Every structure is written in structure tokens, then in C-alpha cells.
User: Which sequence fits this backbone?
């Protein structure tokens, strides 16, 4: 039996936010600001990995993509527009319902599934993404192993997560949650993972981690890609 990675209390926390997940001014406003930054990194990684035309509109045409911890589909929908056949998986049934409704309204055919990734029998995918997820799971080694098992030969895995630093404690929990920019209880600093720790987990799962890119914040630029890894970072991995 696959190791359980879902924490019921985490699923309940995010499920309670499902109804306004797509509201750019609602409880998920920070994700709406973060999503374009992540997508810029993802698009560059896709073009580099598959030698795609950077000006092409559908670089994922003919490829299968899996978004793990998909929420209500903020990343799954852009991946579908880039041409992928997309499957989204989430721990919260409420999120999957919201994702299905929004995709239907947007005319996008995305397969959404609720439950534990390791027991859904989804097969392998060319692209696997897990954005801001690993810090919420119960068993990090098992979770990374499951991601690796779902990655097809020659495929690309992309993860993003907060770094466990004094800066992330101050800004993501001490400031963002205290001021209401992120719902209280979203983050637990002790569960954050450093790039070095993530690299070790990926290596144990048979994957090689690429050079991490930072996701930084400044009042002038907002959230942006940076060489500074102290707040949040995003990485690729492959066999």
C-alpha cells in the first residue's frame, strides 16, 4: 500500500478556501500574484527541455501533464492552454469540484481527481508539477517518490516551495499571515524544506535536481524570479 501523504487537516484548510480560489482579490490573492512568476519559469524550462520554439503557443501539444496539489486549477488551466492533456490531483474534494466547474466554464477538458496520488493509478506523464505542495504533505520522501514514479522517461518535474530560512519565517508567517495576505494557518515553518534537503530527496528517488531559481519579493517589483532563494524557490528535476 502506498504511504499516505495527505494530512486531513491541511486538506480541510484548503478545501475551506475553494469557493473563492479564482477570486484574484480573495483568500487566494497571493497565489494569483505568484502564478505568473511560476509560469514564466515553467515556460522557459519546457522550451529548454524539449527544445521548443519560445514563440510557440502550444509547446506541450501531444504531451501529458500532471499537476499535483492542483487546488482549483490555477496552473492546470494554463498548462492545458499550452497544449497539454492535463490531469490535476488534489487532497481536497472541494477544490476538485471548484476546478471542474471553472474548467467547464472555460471550455477546457481537464481530468481532475481527488485523493492520494499513490493509489489513483494515473500512469506516467511527460510533465509533472507540484507547486507549493511538498511543505504540506505528511511524508516528504514518499511524496517525492510518488512524483518520480509518475514521471515518464525523458520527462520533466517542476516543484516550488518556501525555503526554511529566517526570512521566510518573518515574511510568510510573521507578516503575510499576520496581515491577512495569506490565510492564517496556511504555513508551518518547521515543514519548509531547504534546496539542499529537496535535492537529497530527489536524489533518493532517482532524480537529478537542476539549478534552483528564487522567487523573491520587493515593494517595487512584487513577486519576481531572482537569484535570491531565501524566501521561496522553484526547481526542475529529471532522471
Assistant:
Amino acid at each position: 500500500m502506498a504511504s499516505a501523504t495527505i494530512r486531513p487537516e491541511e486538506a480541510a484548510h484548503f478545501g475551506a478556501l475553494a469557493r473563492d480560489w479564482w477570486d484574484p482579490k480573495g483568500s487566494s490573492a497571493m497565489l494569483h500574484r505568484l502564478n505568473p512568476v511560476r509560469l514564466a519559469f515553467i515556460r522557459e524550462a519546457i522550451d529548454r527541455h524539449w527544445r521548443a520554439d519560445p514563440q510557440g503557443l502550444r509547446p506541450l501539444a501531444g504531451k501529458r501533464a500532471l499537476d499535483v496539489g492542483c487546488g482549483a486549477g490555477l496552473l492546470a488551466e494554463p498548462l492545458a492552454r499550452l497544449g497539454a492533456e492535463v490531469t490535476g490531483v488534489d487532497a481536497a474534494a472541494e477544490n476538485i469540484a471548484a476546478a471542474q466547474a471553472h474548467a467547464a466554464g472555460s471550455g477546457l477538458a481537464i481530468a481532475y481527481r481527488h485523493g492520494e496520488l499513490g493509489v489513483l493509478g494515473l500512469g506516467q506523464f511527460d510533465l509533472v508539477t507540484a507547486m507549493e505542495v511538498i511543505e504540506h504533505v505528511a511524508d516528504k520522501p514518499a511524496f517525492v517518490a510518488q512524483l518520480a514514479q509518475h514521471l515518464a522517461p525523458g520527462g520533466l518535474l517542476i516543484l516550488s516551495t518556501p525555503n526554511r530560512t529566517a526570512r521566510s519565517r518573518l515574511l510568510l508567517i510573521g507578516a503575510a499571515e499576520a496581515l491577512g495576505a495569506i490565510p492564517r494557518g496556511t504555513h508551518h515553518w518547521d515543514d519548509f524544506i531547504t534546496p539542499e534537503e529537496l535535492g537529497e530527496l530527489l536524489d533518493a528517488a532517482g532524480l537529478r535536481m537542476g539549478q534552483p531559481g528564487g522567487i523573491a519579493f520587493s515593494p517595487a517589483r512584487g513577486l519576481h524570479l531572482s537569484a535570491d532563494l531565501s524566501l521561496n524557490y522553484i526547481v526542475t528535476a529529471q532522471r
Remarks:
- The longest strand covers residues 151-162.
- The chain has seven helices and nine strands.
